[in-house]
Amino acid sequence: MIIVYAPEGGEEQHLDAGKLRASEIQIVERTAPGRWADIKQAMREGEINAMRTVAWVIRMRAEPGLRYGDFDPWEGELRVRLDAREVSRYAEALFEEYRSRPDELAEAFDELREAAFRVEDAEAAIADVTGPKDPAPETQTPSPASPTGS
After folding, report:
1. In Å, how far are 117, 134, 145 from 17, measured between CA atoms?
2. N or C: which end of the chain has fewer CB within 10 A?
3. Region of residue 9 (phi > 0: left; psi between -120 and 50: alpha; otherwise: beta)
């Protein structure tokens, strides 16, 4: 997951929540009570405490003295987007769930494009799951027989 932090009047930051050290996860679990798996799910659902806590931990890499109380984004300044690995997993799951209902599948893929950090990742994942699985074997045309001399 990528947390997009877009402070008003500041530069947008992209914080990769998919690459945390064990020690950082422990800080997250102590600050936002719960297990890491539950906190990740809460971020997917847009839960502000989960997003704020993870963003704060990632920002502490560059600002070691940053206190939790000093990182207090306004509503709407934090949002979560799916990274390439997650987009790929979601595309596979959506295809399996909706393959027999093309209209719903198209709508689900549109939502996936919106949720992706990079729309290019979504397009590639969708192409991977919807493309031909077993390409037809190439047929070779027999070459004309060469004349033999006598």
Report:
1. 12, 36, 63
2. C
3. left
